[in-house]
Amino acid sequence: MKQRVLFLCTGNSARSQMAEGLLRHLAGDRYDVFSAGTHPVGLNPGAVEAMQDIGIDISKHRSKHMNEFTDRAFEYVITVCDRAKDSCPRWPHAATLIHWSFEDPAAVTGTADERRHAFRTVRDQIKQQIELFITAR
């Protein structure tokens, strides 16, 4: 039986969406993967583009509120931003709570290339953390 993982972020627009797509791509045979936000704002096109760059399509994802999942059991609930961690320090029905802190690429201002670079950098950081997560389990 697959273990259930929920990635939480504030807007469920970039970091948690990329984490969901990456874990599903790298180990979807072992995990049922979901993502949600404390204040969902819609899927960020920069996240979609950064994931497409490595051959993962998250364009059909949608932002979801964490309340959609509060009655579900998860082996792992992983917050990927500090604000989400502060908003939900405890999660009902979670066996293990984990916190990974990543900068918000959606908050980066500047040129299109600078914004693209921010999304790619955070994507790669999340990928590295997920690879460690998979290896440790």
3D structure, described in words:
By secondary structure, the chain is α/β, with parallel strands linked by helices. It has one domain (3-136): Response regulator (Rossmann fold), CATH 3.40.50. It has four helices and four strands. It has helices spanning 15-27, 45-52, 82-87, 112-136; strands spanning 3-9, 31-37, 74-79, 94-99. It has a four-stranded parallel sheet with strand order 2-1-3-4. Helix 1 crosses helix 4 and helix 2 crosses helix 4 (112-136). The longest helix is centred in the last third of the chain and has 25 residues, at 112-136. The chain is globular and about 40 Å long. The mean pLDDT is 92.
Keywords:
137 residues; alpha/beta; Rossmann fold; globular
Question: Summed up, what is this model?
Answer:
The chain has 137 residues and is an alpha/beta fold. 38% of the residues lie in helices and 19% in strands. It contains four helices and four strands; from the N terminus they run βαβαβαβα.
Q: How many E strands?
A: 4
Instruction: Report the β-strand fraction as a percent range.
Output: 15-25%
Element string (H = helix, E = strand): EHEHEHEH
Range of helix content: 25-40%
CATH C-level label: Alpha Beta
CATH topology: Rossmann fold
The biggest beta sheet reads:
4 strands, parallel
State the CATH architecture: 3-Layer(aba) Sandwich
Any low-confidence stretches, pLDDT <50, length ≥5? none
Summed up, the helix count is: 4
Pfam family, one: LMWPc
InterPro entries: Ptyr_pPase (IPR023485), Ptyr_pPase_sf (IPR036196)
Keywords: Arsenical resistance, Hydrolase, Oxidoreductase
EC number: 1.20.4.-, 3.1.3.48
